Amino acid sequence: MIDIRSESLLSLAAAGRHLAAIQGGRPPRPSTFYRWATRGLRGHRLEVIRCGGRVATSVEALQRFFDALTAAAPAPPIHPPAATPDATLSELDRLGI
User: A Pfam family for this UniProt protein (predicted)?
Assistant: First the structure.
């Protein structure tokens, strides 16, 4: 939950500008943050506050949101080692091909 007394508040547009460096200089649209707040992303929702018809988040809420997404990220799949060309040729010889 956002604590307006101790957290750095950002409008959704300002949140996009805050993350522009990560996106190669192109800030995410405010609608992206609104979607993350209302629908969520991978089961996690961005914390926001509403004040006078405006929606805002905080730098700390963004950090908590991205920390949750990072912690919930599945481990990359483990692929079995690929057969070496010699092993493949040996297997083909064994099969008579």
Answer: DUF1580
